[in-house]
Amino acid sequence: MVSACKWSTYKKGMDTVIVSTFSTADKIALLDIVITVIIAIWISIFVNNNFTTIRAVKEYFITEDQIIRDEYNEFLKKIYNNEGNPREIPEWFKVMTMKINVYEGFLKKEFHVHPKLGKHHTKIKILITGSDELNSSFNAETFSLLGTSKTSLHKIHKDFSNSQTRLVVEINKAKPKSWLTRQFKR
Amino acid sequence: MEAQIIRIKIRNDYNEYPGPRYCNQGTSSGEDFYHMKLNGAFANVFTEGKKLEIDLDDTAGYLSSFLDETFGNLVFDFTAEVVRAKIKIISVQEPDWEDMIMNDVIHDWENRRISNNFPKKTESHPEWFRLVNGQLIKKVWIQ
User: Fold this and answer.
1) Which of A138, A139, A152 should be substituted to probe chain B, the one whose Cβ sees the most B Cβ atoms within 10 Å?
2) pTM
3) Which residues of B touch A139 (CB under 8 A)?
4) Chain A interface disruption, residue of B10, B65, B97, most A CBs within 10 A
5) What is the DSSP string of B43-100?
6) A116 lies in which domain range?
């Protein structure tokens, strides 16, 4: 409270000057108000900005997850429909491996999450590129997976899709790694 | 003192576009790479006490069968223990290949070697090396 301050006036030339004399309690109370205002401004600007930044980064990772999902679905649709070109398969997997590795690398660095996309991706890659069907049709225009291979693929594909959905939940719940944590991880 | 390292980069020393598992399935197969390059190079590093670094990067990608046939044959001819001690796989672009070779392929083909489940050859190859009781012997092992 600043109620106990004394007010006095005096003449300085033509002007009347009003002066207040603050007690120690008044000064502390004023300091309290100033600090409260500064904290309020800091929260409204810095923390809010930080929250907005974190939200934007999370949105970016979630969008990337969706892009990977779309590309994967388009690719596997071709495989299921026996329309995959054998000679294009290794390169597609290579590019996707690199994409997922970079994605998971950044995600692990920025947030406390444990994505499993790479693990399922490797299983799908080994299943398709190790199949007799693909190897024996390597010079053909397309290849067809047998029913047993497709059944195995369906199962791993389902696990892959589940881990992508789980990852969106994890990203939304995740806390960003502190600056200090990131330095120690380097 | 570290053993001297001999390097094979598949893109430069073999082909930018590795193919399927067997010679009769297409060009630049795992079977072909093993007999054309890897068997002889590995026998040399074994004789000279060196190490062999195989760089998988910068190609147009692999079928897992190519790698399985290549490194599986190496294990079959030289044993898992010698292969593990003598090779280093470089695969920065697809690190999962290194894991697959060093864990699954070597393990599976060592079991296959022990149980005399011979690899399939779809083409006749010139004599190649195999380690028998610590000695390198060169001949056509499988017709």
Assistant:
1) A138
2) 0.84
3) 25-26
4) B65
5) HHHHHHT-EEEEE-TTSS---HHHHHHHHHHHHHHH-HHHHHHHEEEE-SS-HHHHHI
6) 55-185
